[in-house]
Structures are given as C-alpha cells and as structure tokens.
Prior knowledge:
This protein has 27 helices and 53 strands. By secondary structure, the protein is of the alpha/beta class. One of its GO terms (molecular function) is metal ion binding.
Amino acid sequence: MFFLVHLITQDEKHWSDEITDSSRGDSEIQNQKHHIQKASGGVDCPDGADLEGPTQEKAVAVAAVAAPGGPLSIPGRNRATLETGPLPPTLYVQLHGETTRRLEADEKPLQIQNDYLFQLGFGELWRVQEEGMDSEIGCLIRFYAGKPHSTGSSERIQLSGMYNVRKGKMQLPVNRWTRRHVILCGTCLIVSSVKDSLTGKMHVLPLIGGKVEEVKKHQHCLAFSSSGPQSQTYYICFDTFTEYLRWLRQVSKVASQRISSVDLSCCSLEHLPANLFYSQDLTHLNLKQNFLRQNPSLPAARGLSELQRFTKLKSLNLSNNHLGDFPLAVCSIPTLTELNLSCNALRAVPAAVGAMHNLQTFLLDGNFLQSLPAELENMHQLSYLGLSFNEFTDIPEVLEKLTAVDKLCMSGNCMETLRLQSLRRMPHIKHVDLRLNILRKLTADEVEFLQHITQLDLRDNKLGDLDAMIFNNIEVLHCERNQLVTLNICGYFLKALYASSNELVQLDVYPVPNYLSYMDVSRNHLENVPEWVCESRKLEVLDIGHNQICDLPARLFCNSSLRKLLAGHNQLARLPERLERTSVEVLDVQHNQLIELPPNLLLKADSLRFLNASANKLETIPPATLSEETNSILQELYLTNNNLTDKCVPLLTGHPRLKILHMAYNRLQSFPASKMAKLEELEEIDISGNKLKAIPTTIMNCRRMHTVIAHSNCIEVFPEVMQLPEIKCVDLSCNELSEVTLPENLPPKLQELDLTGNPRLALDHKTLELLNNIRCFKIDQPSAGDASGAPAVWSHGYTEASGVKNKLCVAALSVNNFCDNREALYGVFDGDRNVEVPYLLQCTMSDILAEELQKTKNEEEYMVNTFIVMQRKLGTAGQKLGGAAVLCHIKHDPVDPGGSFTLTSANVGKCQTVLCRNGKPLPLSRSYVMSCEEELKRIKQHKAIITEDGKVNGVTESTRILGYTFLHPSVVPRPHVQSVLLTPQDEFFILGSKGLWDSLSIEEAVEAVRNVPDALAAAKKLCTLAQSYGCHDSISAVVVQLSVTEDSFCCCELSTGGSVPPPSPGIFPPSVNMVIKDRPSDGLGVPSSSSGMASEISSELSTSEMSSEVGSTASDEPPPGALNESSSAYLSEQRCMLHPVCLSNSFQRQLSSATFSSAFSDNGLDSDDEEPIEGVFTNGSRVEVEVDIHCIRAKEKEKQQHLLQLPAEASDEGIVISANEDEPGLPRKADFSSVGTIGRRRPNGSVAPQERSHNVIEVAADAPLRKPGGYFAAPAQPDPDDQFIIPPELEEEVKEIMKHHQEQQQQQPPQIQQQPLQRQFQMDQLPDYYDTSL
Length: 1334
C-alpha cells in the first residue's frame, strides 16, 4: 500500500506539469448531446429528441434554458487536438456525491484526500492511507479523470406513464386518440411520436406561462397548452383519478413559473453556460453553490465578466462559489436590486460597488471582511446589508450614511466592545443584531439615550452586567447565554425580555413595563419574583424555571392577562393559599418542594388546561368542585413522582375533560372502577411504578384511549385494554402477569405491546399467533441463567418510547457478549425526526467497532475511527441526514495481573453517558454545541452561518454529529472519548438519548434509579420520568448495572502462561428480553451475529430455515468428549470464579438473529402443533431464535477452529449462518477472507468487494446514482429443498436416536473423537446437553 501511494504521489507532479489550460476543456466538448440541467423555468429535452413546434416556441424554450457542462463550439479545437495527440485528462474532485470541482494545476488528489480524512478526525497517517484505499470512500470523496456526465436530466423526470393522447382541437375529426408515452420533465411536457417507445421524435410542449385545464367531456382528462400566439394543446386521458390529480397539481406548479427566472444552483458550474445568454431578458438568476471563476482558463468560456450583458437583471445569487475576489462585473449591472455574495472568502469590497444605485439588498455574510469602502454611501436605496460572520472589530462608519438601512446585522464577528456613541450617529438603525460576538462591555461615552433602537440582540456574548436603561424605547431585548449578574432595563415600551441561561441575581425594569407580554428569565440565580412583574398588566407568558425562588406572590395569579406560568425547578415550599379567580391556562410547578397545592387552586382556575406538579412531595390533590357539577376544563394532568395515595383518585372525577393523566411512581394501591368510568375522554394514562394489582375493567368506557402505560406494578390480571378501538400502545412490563386474555381480533391501530419483566407469564401457541401482526411486541425470553453460579459483572435493561406522530426515531444497542464473551458493548442512537438513521447505526456500529479493535487497541483511536467509518457507511447508504450516537465498550485486559475492566465511552450529538460511582454521577460524555467556545471558534473559521435558533446553516445545533456530510467541515463526526477503570464503587451507568437528558439532569437520573434492583425497571423509570417532565421527543435509555469486585480480574491463563484471553465472566442476566419489532421496509439489515446482539432487531426466518439453524448450531460445537467434565484438560487447569469450567449440562443462552426471506415462513409453527417450537418466537415475518452459547476454553476453541478450517472470528460467533450456503454432506471450505470485511458477505447483509480499489482517480463516466435509501442489501432467497426439516410427529423418535448415538459416541476411543469435524447436519454427532428445539 505504501509503495502504491508513493507511485501515485510521484505521478501527481507529472500530471500537474502536463495539464495545461487548453486541456481543461476536453471534458466539456466530449459530450455532444444536449443535457438540460437544473433551470427553473427552463426546457428539458432527452437525448436525441427533436423539438417540434413553432419557431417562436423554440426560442422561448431555449431562452430559459442553461445547460451546465453543455457543448461548447470552439472552432479549430478538435483539429488542434488531433495534431498534438491526446492530452492527459483534467482532474475533478467530488465531495459527498454533490458538486464536482476542477482541480488546479498545483493541487494533488492524494493530498486533498488525506487532508479531508484528517479533517474528519483520523489521527494517524497509516489509518488515513488505509481508509483512502477503501472502495467505499467514493461516497465521501471521489476523483475523476475528466468531468463526469451529470445525471441531472434523468433526475428531473417528475412524472411519466402511458396514456391516451390527442393533439390539437377537439372539434377536428382528423385528430384521434392514441396511446403514447408522456413525460413531465423539468418544465416541459414530452410526448413520444411512436407508440410504446421513447425513440424517434419527441413532441416537446413548454409549460411555463401556459395553462392546464380540466376537460369535462372526458373522464380524468386534462388539456395542456403552451403560451404565446402560436400555442399548442395536448389532451391526455389518465387511467385513474389519482394519476389525474397528481398531474394536475404538478403541472399547475410548472405553468405558474416565470420564464425570466433561472435556477442553476448546485450544478458544478465553472463558467457561465452559452445557452444562458440566448435571452437577455432574465430578471432573476440563481448561481449559488457552484465553482464560478472570474476569468476561466478556457478561451471561449464565459466568466462572471459576462454578467453585465443582462441589462434587466434584478436578482443575482452568487453565494458559496469560493470566489476569493469581489466580481467587479456585477457593479456594471445598474438594474440590480438584490445581490448575494455570502460565503465567498471575500477579503475586500471594491469602491466600484457605489455604482449600483438601485441595490436594495446586499448580502456579504460569511466572508473575511474587516472594513467597507466609503463609496458604499452612494447606495441610497440600500435597505438591508448583511455583514454577519465576518472579521469586523467595530461598526463600519459608512453605515452612518446608509440612511435606508434599519437593521444592523453583525452577528458572529470579532467585536469586544460596543461603542454606543457610534450607534448614536445612526438614528436610522432600529434593530441591532450582535449575537455570537465576544462583547464584554458597552461604553456609553456621555451618550444620554438611544431612542431609535427598539430591538437589541446580544445573545451568546461575554457580558457580565448590562445597563440597558440608555435604550429608553427598547421593545425586544435578547441577552441569553451571557454571564450577566445584574440587568437593568427601561420598561416604557418593553414587550419581550429574553434573559435565560445567565447568572442573574438582580433584575430591575423601570418603569413598570405595561406592554410586556413575554418574559423568560429561566436558568438564573433569582431568589424571588421581582415586584414589578406582578404589575405588568399585559404579561401573558412568564418563565422563571430553574432558579432559586422560594415563594410566588399571590398577586401574580391575579393578573388577568397571564396565560402561561412556568415555575418548575425552584425551591417552592408552597403556593399562595387564597387564590382569587385566575386566568392561567398552563401551570408548571414541577421539581419543587410542594407538600400540597392550594385548596381552591382548581376551584378558582377556571381556565386551567395544563397542570404539571410532578417531582414534588404531594400527598393529595385539591378538589375541582364542591358539588356534582364542575366547570373544570383541565385536559392534561402530570403528577408523577409524588407521594399520592388512593385518596386522590376520587378527586380526578372532577375533571371530566381530562385527556392525559400521568400518576406514575406514587403510592397508589388501587384505582376504583367507578372513578375510571367517569373519565370517558381520557386518551393517555401512565400509572407505572405504583402497587396496583389490577387495572379496572371500566377502562372500556374510555373509548378514545390510545396509550396505557402501567409497568412496574403488581398487576396479575391482563386488563381489558385490547377491547379499546383506538389503542396504540400498551406497556405492562415488570408486573406479575401469568396469562394474557385477547379478543378474537386485535385492535386495528395497536402498534406496541410490552410484556417483558413478567416471569410467570406463559403464552400458548394461539396467543403468540394472534400477536404476530403487532409492529413491536416485547416479551421475556426464558433463560437458564448461569448454572455454575458465577457472579454477573454486568447486566442491562433498555427501553424506547415514540415521540410525536408515533415515530420511533431512536434505537438501542446491547451486546452482553461482544467479541466472544470477553467484552460488552452498549449504545443509544437518536435520529431527531429521522427514523432510518438510528437503525442504520444500530445495525452497523458493532461490526465496525469489532474491525477497528483488530487494527488498534488504543481506546481513543479505535472509538474515533469507528465513528468516522460509520460516517462513510451512512454515505454509502445514501443518507444525507444524520444522528447522535453514544457507544460504551467494556473490555478486560487479562495481560495485566492487577488490571480490571475498562469502560470506554464515545459520543457525538446529545446522546450521553453517565456513570454512578459511590452514588455520585460521573459524566463520561460531552455535548458539542455553540456554547462550547472551541467549537464556536472552529465554526467561525469555516464561515458557516449560525441561524438565530442556534443551528449550523439552520440544520443541526450539534457541531459534532454523524451524517450531515453536506455541512462539512463545520460539522464533523469525531466523538468525545473518555475511558475509566471500573472499580467496586461503580454501581451502574446510563446511556440516554437527547430527549432523556433534556428532561432530567444527570444527578436526578442517577438518584432516580440507584435503588432500583432491576436494570429493565430502571430504564423504564427513566423514560417515564422524562415523559412526565415534558419530553415529547423519542426517548431511549439503557441502564447497565455493574458488580465489580476486588478480584474481578481474570487469572485463568496466568498460571499456565497462556496468551489467549479467557472468556468473559458470567454476565448473563436472569432473563433476556426478546423483542419482535418491525423495521422500515427499505431493506435495512440486522446486526451481525458476531456481535451477539440481544437488542431490538428484526429477523426473517422460515420454519424450514429455523430447523436447519437449530441443527447446525450443534454441528459447529466440539464433540461430547471435548467438554466432558472428567476430561484431563479441565482437571489440570486452574479456573477463577469468573470463568468456571462449563459442565456438559451447563450452558448460557443469548438471543441471536438471522436474516432470511420469509417467503416460506409459517411463523415458526406447524399447523398441527399445539405449542410453539421451543426457542422460537415470531410475529409473522420476523423471528427471534434462541441459540446456545457454551462456555468453552479458549485454547480448545482455537484447536477446533483449526480442525474446522474456519477463522477465529467466524466460529467465535457461536451462531451459524444459513444452512443452505453449503450443500449438506460436503465439508466446509476454509474462508480466510472472512477474517476482515473484504471479499465476503457481512452478517448484516452488506457486501464488501473482494478487491480494494487501487485507482484513486476514476475515469469519468456517468456519475453513480446515489442510493435512494438503505445501505444493506437483502439476503438471498433460501432454497427450501436444502433445508433439514424434522416433522413434528417424529421429534420424539429423533430425540431417542440422538440419545442412543450420543451414548455410542462416549464409548468411542478419544482418538476417534479428535477427527476433523465437518460443518454438516450429522444427527449422530449431536450431544444431548444442547438444548435445542429437537
């Protein structure tokens, strides 16, 4: 590899020396066919199509078309090329499958690639070189020899189909209906002239400015007409009403466009296309995100200097073109009113800009400007000037002369001091935006008042105090995320105050703000509510959460305008006792020290719709009425984590309009049926974490109920929830259910059913069959546990909850026996609003981590590399979006005699890990957002635009996150990595998604689950608490309980000098959760069996496939004598308590998954069976198979692997692959290529090429199409004839035969047992201590 890199590096200089300016045009004249590119208002025409129609229509159509990379007619060019011979091709680079850029003569491809990979986060040169040789790197960075042909024309085909078409007027009998192929491509309607064919002539009808009308005489018929005096009309009859509507909507949008507007953004343009100049009447031209140059190297190429030919141009967008220098040609376009030159690395603005007298909007954001020319004052009509994210240290003086500009946009600059004297000289400025600077102080310089400024934005600066009294007409003030201790504001016209996330102890507003309607002072150090707040007569929203307030004044509730009061996370011991009539609609007092609520709170609050009093010390709730009638309109009531008893339940009936009720983790022992019957409008109820023994049958009265969550109770009888017509989610985990009663037909909308944590629950065949079609069905998998009595060092539990619109955008990963039982791996992935990304991460990252562990053992390096390689995998899957992720890897180093387990955590985004050590939280993660000073500095260096909601280019607020490659280099996937040695003081650690940590602090999360003995119940509790505290996003939580002792290091091999690491300690929990869950139907694969994943995964397995899987499991294991407890190998070996000798009847179980076709599936059950096959749980097309994982001595395993001619990685899985991969009866050939990831089908379904691509630069051809979605290929269909099937009626007989043969095997001499094993289905070699379905 190093030799190859050296050769290519030497060739780079040779190529660079030979590439001349004249040769750079070769690739642009190779393509002689007209490919229409992205042109809003243009005409698209496929190759070889003839444009039929009047000449005027042709002219109008072509005038609006620009063809980037289109043919250029250069006389004599071809003759010169023939005379001098072929020249080396021009080199191009493409990032993330987007635009392609021509390389300069001095640029070297390998240097560009190495710099890119280092920028992603790789730390070592050898690893960068290895990644650069991977064939999949092309999805991130790709080089071409010659400019690749664009696929833009095919992507612009919006609609197509075969329909009945008639041309011309309906009245003429000459025109007949014929079946033709019709295409809507770009802005044109294309009709084939030959039946059922796209060859030959194509009738092209320009639609811009035309019209589409309904033809009432014919069913599903539309008339398409072009514009102009010689317009033509085509009548098209569609087959269905759906197609009719789709065409009507799409064509109507096209017809409404303007012919004077052209969009050529993101087209990889290096010069202006010739076709763009066919019309001089353009008024709007969009050229953003290209690579336009001032003076192209090609002689006939048209550079930016040609833009002055557009004498009617009003709007020009040249942003993100990497110009470097200001394009002087635009100054010669007098008609321009809008000019966008953002993100072009400009360092100066020339004086010639003063000639643009009609310019009204001038955008210069994201450059390196430090000053502006004085000639800018000649722009008398300029009303908006964008100067954000530049290098200004002060306000430019020329702004004093621009009297039409009313907003100062200078966020993201380098201003340390705001001189108010300069603002005083700009009376026309009303809105000042100075966020994300480094302001430390404001200097007045004897300035009295600045009466003209009404809005001031000082967010994300370094102000310690702010005296804003000088702004006496201020209406809106933003000063969040500073270091403010005191704040003084003039309140004459104040309407909105945003001052959260500071250190405020004093807040003064004078005079009383009579116009104040919104006030947010949360996350400060306030100890009381200022008096003037109670006197603000128009205050509607008040957020004082996360302070140190001990008391709320009674007058605050008397404010007739107050609608929303957020006072959570304070130190309130009580609320005002005697409340008068209040208009508050939303009241949030969670996380205080309230023992009771005011007795008349619900009596006086007639308008109250939302009440959250969770995480207090409430023992009861106040009544809503003193009689039978009630005026309560309360719809949402959250009372989780209090001390409520059964006495409060009858009081709930005073709220007949209640829709959401959360009373989890209280002291409820019963819920009377008569009270439940009166809550008819209830839609969601959460009564988890109580001591309920039953859910009342009167829940049937709640016909609108869609969510019932009642985990962690003592429920023994399955409730009547399956009779509810709207039910979607039922969670009855961690109860004492023994049976499930189901109706004949499940509710049509049921999506989730969780029955885990019910040890006495036994489901019969019919019940399992009925639950087949539920999208997510969770149930315990029976497990024999650890028969040897070895202590469990770690055990886990996890949970997931859907967010808005019932979309589950999170996923969890839990592998208790990662890398052959020596390690463990856990993860949480959050896709925000994206469903597919979390599952891609879940299915892939464990495999990547296993591969990276083979390359480097450094904790930080292998974790960092795992995340960066995952970035490549997302690109291969065609994913443009991304997600947050956190991985925790536990590993043991047996080489160190005194060593213990090491926990390594890595995260990007807002998924985080916290470790509980000695009862205190120890954070192991870091969230990289704009508040991180080093991250903000890096973002500014790359000139990304941070929008007002704190997101990079308006996309994501995390600066380090997986995916989002189009935001590179501002957003990178390099994770934060932290490793700790586990000690006996470490109790557990928690992995959580963004929704969890946004709702719970790490201290509260640790305290909440510290005394919960079961990991599953602990994870459930965290999820329930987060939802009750206000989280509406998807949530995922993984709790891993630790039991690390002083002698937790392994010494099995130290006495014998063995170098092979021993198996992991007894890490299997008493029960393993088994999940049947549907996944998006886009070909997503499942985790590799090598990872031993027991997480939520989907499997497709036919009954015949399952039978062969069970049989092949045993055939992979050693013969009986190899594990005989009387074997001499075990008699002479010393074992530690963590790795006891595994007896012949002792085994450990885990869940495994295999992905196969379900074409022949009968749900794993035979129609004549009365009970399901043991070890198989299914929900139709997805099956979980129980597989035995045996504790085997490492040296014996190596010997067996050698005999089997299988690599270590393959046999360590403990799970065999498809039985039909090899024909029965034939020995399995050695496949050493499966040690890595090259040249084999990975267990997750993806295919790695057998040969690494040694060609860094590809020959230009058709650019590869991006995959619409799904990185994982579907597995091959199994042949049912290749499967080994045992009929149910022969099972007992086969078992007897197996037992008989096993006894004969034990009587054979040892040398016979040591013969080479063959991977086939030989029933006479199956020992009886394998617990299979046979």
